[in-house]
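Session log. Operator J.P. requested a structure for one protein chain; no other inputs attached. Running the standard single-chain path with token output.
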Amino acid sequence: MRADPLRLGLIGAGFIGAVHARCIEQNPQARLIGVFDVNRAAAEAVAGHTSMLAPSAEALLSDPNIDAVIIASTTDTHRDLSRMAIAHGKAFLCEKPLDRALGSAIETVGRAENAGILAGMAFNRRFDRQHSELRRAVVAGEIGNIEMMHLTSRSQSPPNLAYARHSGGMLRDKGAHFYDLACWIAQDRPVRVYAQGACLFEPRLAEFEDVDTAMIVMEMSRGALCHFNFSRRTSYGYDERIEIFGSGGRIDSGTPLPLDLATYKGETIVRLGPHRSWFERLEHSYATQLAAFIEEWRSRGGSFPRLRDGLLAETIADAAQKSMEMGQPVSV
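Structure written below.
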């Protein structure tokens, strides 16, 4: 087993790239060796005084002093960068989605598996303690056979239209994380999906065939029914919850409060509301994800999410989008 710190390169120095850089800096088992971003000023800000600025993604991926690379650049670059990493035999962790085109994503997954490298998918929600503990209990059989799953994700406020226009739509952008969670928790995959969506408060999203509110029902191969409800707006903060109902009981992964304090006055009890944003709620999961990636790089234990998990989420997202457009269930 390798004991030296994992020497990492980072491609993409935007918001999520900076998050990954902080996680690397705080983990004694990791070192940030090099950074590349087409925006040099952003790359300089993330690299600081300890990491080199790579002149290109190719230079970073071909550097023999780098063991693995985190791909945190824009969605439209993920396919080419992941294929470049595969060509160089470099382990990598890629933010979702792997590709916007399903056929192309299938080819990339095949290349990675044939190369035999660690090609990880950044499904950070798997590393949230509440969700991972829920999954452990379900896998251990604590609630019997799964009969129903309910997954909720409601953002405090919608993304800006410039981002939403290129995100692939809520059923893909938001949905991918939760389709992955459902399949991971149930250790199953869907056979059919039915989706409905609407623009209830942001009509401009309809200009690029997107919605702000959606409900999706998924039938799993062993018969369990899975329900997702998504919204891009709340009046009370970020809301993310999972409920699993089984033959022997129910288990929930709720919306945690940032501080569990309550004020009692007369007949009123006042508590602090949920986290204000998805990142505030899930920031901790990125550090846990990095630690798990390092462990996977060392042991190749097979528990870290791979590109094929990302491909399954993309396949479900495509089916959900088609279902919403057609107004009828679609086979997965």
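Operator note: The first helix runs from residue 15 to 26.
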